[in-house]
Amino acid sequence: MKKKITGKIALILAACSIVGLSGCSGQSASSGAAAGSSSAATEYEDTVNIGLAGDPAYLDPDQSSIGPTEATVMQQIYQGLVTTSADSTSIEPDLATDWKISDDGLTYTFNLKPGTKFSDGTPVKPEDWVWSLTRARDCDTSEYRFIAEEIKDVKADEKTVTITLKYQWAPFLADLCNFNMVVGCKAYYDKVGGTEYAQKPLGTGPYMLKEWVKGSSLTLVKNPNYAEFGYPKTSTLKFTVIPDDNTRLMQLQSGQLDVVGDVPYSQVDTIQKDQNLKVQTFKSTQIRYLILNTTKKPLDNLKVRQAILYATNKQEIANLVATKYGQPVASVLSESQGKWFNSDLKVINYDPEKAKELLKEAGFPNGVTLTISVSSGSQVYQQIATLLKSEWEKAGITVNIELLEKAALSNKFQSLQHQATVLQWVDDIMDPSEVSGWIADYDQSHAWYTGLKDQALDDLNAQASKEMDETKRVTMYKEIQQKISDNSNVIPLFRNDFVYATSNKIQNLEVSPFSVMRLKDIQKTK
Amino acid sequence: MFKSKIKERRLTKRPAWLRNLSFLTGAVIVLFAVVVALFPQLFTSHDPLEVNALAVLQGPSGAHLFGTDNYGRDVFSRVVWGTRIDLLLGVLGTVIPFVVGCILGLLSGYFSGVLDNILMRVIDILMAFPFIVLVIAIMTVLGQGMINVYIALWVVGWISYAKLVRGDVLVLKNAEYIQAVKIAGFKNSRILLRHLLPNVINAAVVFATSDIVLNMLTGASLSFIGLGIQPPTPEWGAIMNEGRGYINIAWWITLFPGLVMAVTGIGFSLLGDGLADFLRTKGR
Amino acid sequence: MNRLNYIIKRILQIIPVLLVVSILIFLMLRFIPGDPARLVLGEKATNAEVAAMHEKLGLNKSLLEQYWIYLKGILTLNLGDSLKYQRPVIDLLRERTGVTLLLTLVSTLFSLIVSFPLGYFAGMHKDRLGDHVIRTTALAAIAMPSFWVGLLLMIVFGLWFRVLPVGGWGATLPDQLKCLILPGITQSLMTSALLIRNIRNSVVEINLLDYVDFARSKGIPEGEVKNNHILRNAMISTVTLLSMRMAYMLGGSVIIETVFSLPGIGALTTEAIFSRDYSLVQTLVFLFALLVLIINLLTDILYSFLDPRVEF
């Protein structure tokens, strides 16, 4: 329900690669051999070097503005009760073994795995669960505390955790998979205090933090107390902070890094030509949207918004911005969400003539003039705006592009001062409620900064988030997608895959549709 | 006068055409750039803004001399049309600071006293900010756009001239021949204009020619940080920056505007050198 | 006035400058659009939450009061917490300032090593082949954007020859120095070129000046003329230029550190400006100003040694 231009945050583990040249299919030695090593017994490196787009501000799940870098590192250190399955279609036990939901849908009882310890050897105590989950809801620095806002009460004993909800909340299990619903050590927090807690995390996950050279690198080593035997496969992960996409890629090419994400699509060919490297793509929930502010003329007119829909060549934008990894989309919800996705919605073909007609019907026979405000930080937005300008102008819509740095832009659209902008969304959880609430629930974001009040849609969304019958719920969300599409205030442009580039020797890299790396299986052959 | 005799000997040592070679080469380059800036349509038939999805990232060819960019736009015509913007950026960004800075530097260096003190404090304050940091700060306050880039350059630009000229004046005003004309009772204005200015202006002119280039570079750097001119304006720095993401597969987008910028820069610098030579001979 | 008094006077002059600088930074920051509380709280924040954050950050106080807190913070080194990093600003400075200083130092060193011999050589051999080669190369070096050069250098030395790291920062000093070679070269390129031009032109100009002729005519040996007069005078304008360039390069770290992913205060500054991290920005820019003023002070002191004719 949250997520601005930098969006992309996180859920938990999981998600298998759908393409991947060789790795990712299994964990057996044979796939290792296929990946290049010809010796009989495959030997593996102790360390895998991973590029990180920024220095984490802190490693405390309950701090403000957590981005992909923080989430990525924290996911290796912390664990929650449940997690998303590797194929991200279902929810699996993590520190819980199984769970029971009461008939009224308000009480969840989780049976715990016995003997779980933090990486320093301290056993996880019942009070840790109570403290962590309550803190996730109440900590006033946490930007993600809305994820836990349905929690009324947490109780725990040595064997179980019992959570009571304030109201029925269908996506609760999915919420529990989010990166902030993890267990931390209360005694440790009390001892070291909040500041150090955020710098020296203590969790139960596969890795623990060994060294953090600020602004430069983080070294994670195997947690000796990790519950799952034989994991993690690689004893040391070194995250190196390289903010620039190009520099990061060059470090991969020069062998300084083994794994690099956010690969610019244009660079994919170069990497594929390099014999030491391979490209892996992962299904994502990342979609870019055109946001039309309906409180500003002439965008208050539905016909004008429809004209814009016809004047927008989604296919061209997808192809030019994300090459073969992008595909035009019609629904605001990502196809990667599976059953929730409304496949009846079809992408409208580019038709500038039809757009002109619609404009004429709307009372603008001479066309209209619009300003698209986009973030100057990323080339993708400038690209999209430039393409929109050239496409729309063929339909009689004159476009000014206004580049604003991120902070100034958010200021503008949050106060509904803009006309049109381009934003993105990446889901954090395996559920449609997040993006749907963000657009349909007017109070959350003025309908994603479009200022469109649609009470019927708002009500339907509220109902869907409480519906416990999954079939009915699916129907509701399909209808929500249809309604948003009819309103044409938030126009989804294209979805793209996550593209990673790795050394040929890397095996079993997994990235979730929510943009988080799962690294306990990763290995690098010698 | 044996002094001028020595000078004459040294100046006549090399032929006239060689002496003016720098100036000539520079003038030709700059003149050409100016013509391109004034009449870009004479040099290219492509529209610098036209997007063509069918001709994306094509290498240099007869149809597209500098290839095409990620939108399928013709890089050559973007560079040609960009000449106007970058020349304006360089020249307009320099002329005003040059005039203001030289006058202030001359006056404060010569008269010292209160004026000098005030000026030096203002300079101290502005100089205390590193150039780029100050430009970035001003751009963040004003927001992006061509005019704002100028304002940022003006606010910061004049300092270098004032400081350079003042430093030279401080040294020169104690030189024997200036002391001599002072004692001879020449008016201050005459000393300033006829004796000091010609001697100190050279360094400022040489610096101004680099400053033109520097201002173009600053424009490019602003694009790099994301605070530059609004797209899709074809500005050289913006073109280079757009090509940055494609450097491995489409080097032409980044390389050519960089080279053109370098050649233009060399042109201005040669012109400045020639001019400095010319002023030096004429000054005495 | 003797030199010591002059130095003391210069140091005292810095204080009001710093004061004005701090006011300027403070005001400029308040004019930048974008509310830090909203940025840190995210888009879902209610007005009440924003107001609470304003109170927590002290943004609801009067400007005068806010400025006083800022000023007091600088004087007592109690600089507050970074909004984005939720850590004391002083810790962030401690971690990152060294990188930028080292980068500036390495770049300055590179430029000095390159420019003095080349500039002097070109000046003394005016209009011969060597002069032309050096000058043209210098001209080209001036006109190339640093991020462009940095990119090319990374490709050539990092990817083709693989002799130097492509950006990033090392854990040990030798590693770190290795990481600074390419950024240092990139950063020093324009400075070297400007210095070469300046030294050459000074040498040429001073060669033509009357007092050199006069010295010659008095029968002072050629070598002594060059050393005492030419070089010394060439030094004066060069020192001015170099100090300006050092300040420029300090600021240039904003770009270079971004290109080469160095964890210095340059990259941190843009990051802080973009995230409206007020306490961090106002400290960082103040630090930049302080460093520049120190460079200028040292320059002026050096100046007084080089040219005794400068009036104190």
From TrEMBL, chain A:
Keywords: Signal, Transport
Residues in the signal sequence: 1-22
GO cellular component, one term: periplasmic space
InterPro entries linked: Peptide/Ni-bd, SBP_5, SBP_5_dom
Predominant place of localization: other
Compartments (UniProt record): Cell envelope
Gene Ontology molecular function terms on file: peptide transmembrane transporter activity
One of the protein's GO biological processes: peptide transport
The keyword Chloroplast is annotated on this UniProt entry: no
Domain of life: Bacteria
All residue ranges annotated as the Solute-binding protein family domain in the record: 91-439
Family membership noted in the UniProt record: Belongs to the bacterial solute-binding protein 5 family.
Name this polypeptide is given: Putative D,D-dipeptide-binding periplasmic protein DdpA
Organism per entry: Caproicibacter fermentans
Gene field: ddpA
Automatic annotation (TrEMBL), chain B:
CDD domains, per the entry: TM_PBP2
Alphabetical keyword list: Cell membrane, Membrane, Transmembrane, Transmembrane helix, Transport
Localization per record: Cell membrane
Recorded superkingdom: Bacteria
GO CC list: plasma membrane
GO biological process, one term: transmembrane transport
Mode of membrane association: Multi-pass membrane protein
Family statement drawn from the similarity comment of this UniProt entry: Belongs to the binding-protein-dependent transport system permease family.
Name listed for the protein in its UniProt record: ABC transporter permease
Source organism (scientific name): Caproicibacter fermentans
Automatic annotation (TrEMBL), chain C:
TM region(s), chain numbering: 12-32, 101-121, 133-160, 180-199, 247-268, 280-306
Entry-linked Gene3D superfamilies: MetI-like (1.10.3720.10)
InterPro entries, alphabetized: BPD_transp_1_N (IPR045621), MetI-like (IPR000515), MetI-like_sf (IPR035906)
GO biological process, one term: transmembrane transport
Subcellular location(s) per record: Cell membrane
Taxonomic superkingdom: Bacteria
Domain named ABC transmembrane type-1: residues: 97-299
Originating species: Caproicibacter fermentans
Protein name: ABC transporter permease
Keywords: Cell membrane, Membrane, Transmembrane, Transmembrane helix, Transport
Mode of membrane association: Multi-pass membrane protein
Gene name linked to the record: gsiC_2
Major localization listed first in the record, in broad terms: membrane
Cited Pfam families: BPD_transp_1, BPD_transp_1_N
Coiled-coil regions listed in the entry: none
GO annotations of cellular component type: plasma membrane
Family membership: Belongs to the binding-protein-dependent transport system permease family.
